Amino acid sequence: MGTPLEKVKLAWPYQRFMGINVMKKLSIVFIYLLLVSTVSYADSIRQKSMGNTRVATRSDAAVFQTNPAKLGLVKKGDLSLFRGYGGASADIFSKYSDLLKVRDANTNSEQIAKLKALVPMDVSGSFSVSPWVSSTQENFGITLYSRGQFSGQLNRKTSPKLNFSGDVDTSIMVGFSQTREFMGQDVIIGIAPKLSHQLVFYDKTTGQENMVFNQSSLLKGINSLPGAPKIDQYSLIGMGVDLGFLIPYESGKGAWGVSIENAISSYTGTKPITNQADQDVNTRAPLKLSIGSETDMSAPVIGEFILAADYDIYTEEKNTWFQTYSFGC
Questions:
Q1: What is the residue range of 108's domain?
Q2: Is 23 helix (H, G, I), strand (E, B) or coil?
């Protein structure tokens, strides 16, 4: 059962925890769960600096494409121009000099040997311009932004091949927000319709978006010879709607949030294929449901800091539940 002193020691932190309001309790539990999680993905410098979190971060309220409910936090008009961010896999940087050695090799056999030495190699990356231009004021915003990604894997050491895919999406979005009271708590509701243009990379000869380049074609590309790999692209035009919710803490020192990217989405376009009839494409952007929190905190020595965490509950892109986490401070 424990001594009276032990009971006091156990009861004190419990009483302190129970004395915190409900929203802050949930934040503490939520952040604790994320402490054991992996971190991935970012599409802006500010998001990267906060550990890739985006759903409930209040300092970037003008970047409302991550959650349109953030417009409810904007207190004065703001005009933003060209903020860009890009990133690439560690292999691209660590093996870049080795890749140049393939190009500079004196014989074909030497080139093949050096190309094989690169396997396996991740040649993935992403970039965003968020925004090209953006204008926000309280409860309203309009923005033009782009996001792009490419994914490549060099594998099969006996005869290297590269699997490659990618796309670039540019959208113009108009956002609205409104604050409503629900069970005594202010809830900011955001909605953001958007018009998008997507450029998809593919192999025009086969129509495949997951392109495969064998050893021979890779060497032709490195040496700029006829028959080098060619990456074609086709365009899609689409419309969609993003939704978001924010619940600010009563203390004003944080918020909970929910974002639903591509709650409604539809893309259409035509994919030309060599020696075949053009293929009509009807698709949608991946649905993503995320929750997040941000809390102002303080600690001895460190002083005041902001702790934020996101949890991607579901995304059609990976078709898995409970997979992606982000955490930052």
A1: 4-328
A2: helix
Query: Which DSSP category does 36 fall into?
Result: T
The amino acid present at 242, given as its one-letter code, is D
Write the CB contacts of 235 (distance below 8 Å, at least 6 apart in sequence): 197, 198, 199, 200, 269
Gap between the terminal Cα atoms of the chain: 39
For the segment 174-211, what is each residue's pLDDT rounded down to a tens digit? 999 999 999 889 999 999 999 999 999 999 999 999 99
Percentage of the chain exceeding pLDDT 90: 57
| 56 close to 255: Cβ distance less than 8 angstroms | yes
Judged on CB neighbours under 10 Å (0-12, 13-18, 19+), 168 is middle
Q: How far apart (Å, rounded) are the C-alpha atoms in residues 6 and 240?
A: 57
| Domain count of the fold of the chain | 1
Cβ-count burial of 286 within 10 angstroms (0-12 exposed, 13-18 middle, 19+ buried)?
middle
Over residues 22-31, the pLDDT tens digits come to: 445 444 444 4
Residue percentage of the chain with pLDDT more than 70: 80
Q: pTM for the whole thing?
A: 0.79
Q: Taking the CA of residue 270 as centre, how many other CA atoms within 13 Å lie in the half-sphere pointing to its CB?
A: 4
- Helical pair 215-222 and 108-118, crossing angle rounded to 10 deg: 110
DSSP SS3 for 329: coil
